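Q: I have 208 residues here and want to know how they pack in 3D. Can you give me a structure?
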Amino acid sequence: MIDYLRDPAEIYRQSFAIVREEAELDGLPPALRDVAARLVHACGMPDIVLDLAWRGDVVAAGRDALAAGAPVLADARMVAEGVIRRVLPADNEVVCMIDAPEAGDAARRKKTTRSAAAVGLWTPYLSGAVVAIGNAPTALFRLLELIEEGRPRPAAILAFPVGFVGARESKELLVSTDLDIPYLTLRGRRGGSALAAAAVNALAAGPP
């Protein structure tokens, strides 16, 4: 047999020991360190810690919202599927509208992406929600537009859109816009559904 580590608990322990050794977590506020550790664990890249940006106490805001029963709004099915339901504190609903027929209709009518159109369907769920964006920059752009239009405001934004067109720009707009909403994001092109889901799971589950 191939010699490799099989014990799940030991794999988990060693993984986070390596993360804490290699990632520069000490430069983060104490409340963010466990979340950042889970993000690094999700992607295998300790250097992402240097590109994290945040506003306010996003950890407290997100955890309080989840404890109060707020929904998680996901831009992509992969984000929604990555949320570990059993750690959500209040049997929270995980909402992803990307497959809704209305999203496709609105995208064609408005000549935009399905992701942006799906965000437009979040309004009934948006007040006090935890938003997790891990795929489409257009979803983050549309969320910022909705907030500027005076739509309901989420409790926390976890923004990890990924890609070469609009990802960096959408996150920079989040950072530069004075929304007074706690957020956590990863500047630059990197991101992805695994990171967005890991951020939600970190808020829900607490320290690894």
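Q: Anything worth noting?
A: The domain at 49-205 is CATH 3.40.50.10230 (Rossmann fold). DSSP finds ten helices and six strands in the chain.
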